[in-house]
Amino acid sequence: MVAETKLYDALSVSPTASQEEIKKAYRKAALKFHPDKNKDNPSAGEKFKEVSQAYEILSDPEKRKVYDQYGLDFLLRGGGEAPSGAEGGMPGGGFGGMPGGFAGMPGMGGGGARSFHFTTGGGPGGGGGNFSFSNPESIFADFFKQGGAGMGDDDDIFAQFTGGGGSRGGSGGRSKFRESGGGRRRAPTPEVTTVEKPLPLSLEELFNGVHKKMKIKRKTYDDGSGKRNVEDKILDMDILPGYKAGTKIKFKGVGDQEEGGTQDLHFIVQEKPHEVFKREDDNLRMYVDLDLKEALTGWTRTIPTIDGKKFTLSKGGPTGPGYTERYPHQGMPNSKKPKERGDMIVEVKVKFPTSLTLAQKAHLKDIL
Question: What pTM was computed for the model?
């Protein structure tokens, strides 16, 4: 006969359950209610805490014996005078009100047969000190390290919470938990991220292609000591002829190092403004400004190309606004087909006078 069954009920086992049955019950419940698997269900977190705390007591033969005899209240007070009739109370009026989420006394982590000494003489609180539950995540981590991941055929599911690789006996893989002071706490393991940095390039560099050396500073992390350092790293990159704005040059594992891995670094090509040309895919557009007289009577211009050649463009007039002249294969190279180039387009803009005298207007009417 036990004083109460609330902890057994939390794990859905009977008070006569063996340690193996308790382990299996906890494993099943912890997987079901783990917060990482129930991010949109806050009540699952409370349930995960309950089953973890129940397992912490019932997996320790000495604590389980005291709980069976005197109940949870006696255990939480650290012993003292046995309650009348060996009936234990439930602090907070229910199982969900149990204190939890805090590191307990030294050596009181979850799981295993760690001892806790109680007194049976004196008044309440006399001797031993109060018992506090360990962090539920720490209980979960200890369970994994002690072989909890090797009890079923769903080890891969279990490993996603613990950082393990599904190996038996809790070996292998990387745990998300580390020591902190006298107890254990869960250290957040950041996901490996991708950092994007702009890479401004001139139109000439994008036309010809260029080799770049980029010096970056990266943070490194020492798993053993937990210290952070900063180091310089040189990255070599080849910019192929024809690269466009938005092209990504990717480096894997060269950024800041975190516990979860090392960041990837992506350089994103940006085109610097050009004083003559405007890029349109693989084509290049430039503008020629004409005054009204030139547009009506004729004009001549020397037209440069992106690769340094020059063309002479002449028109006898009249030339209307928006007139274009196209030069095939004088634009940008295609990065995937380097021998192919776009066109160069010359567009005319006509500047009209802002005002005319009456005489000028009359004269134009006679001419036109």
Answer: 0.47
SS3 82: coil
Measured CA to CA, the distance from residue 143 to residue 185 in angstroms comes to 14
DSSP per-residue codes, 57-80: HHTSHHHHHHHHHH-HHHHHTTB-
Q: List all residues 6 or more positions away from 226 whose beta carbon is below 8 Å from its beta carbon.
A: none
pLDDT-derived band at 257 (thresholds 50, 70, 90) equals: confident
Question: In 3-state terms, what secondary structure has residue 324?
Answer: strand
C-alpha to C-alpha distance for 259 and 221, rounded to whole angstroms: 7
Contact 63, 75 (CB under 8 A): yes
CA distance 101 to 104: 9
Q: What confidence tens digit (pLDDT) does each residue in 279-319 have?
A: 999 999 999 999 999 999 999 999 999 999 999 999 998 99
Query: CA dist 103 to 111, 127, 183, 332, Å?
Result: 14, 20, 6, 65
Instruction: Identify how many contiguous H helices and E strands the chain contains and give both numbers.
Output: 10, 15
Higher confidence at residue 87 or residue 232? 232
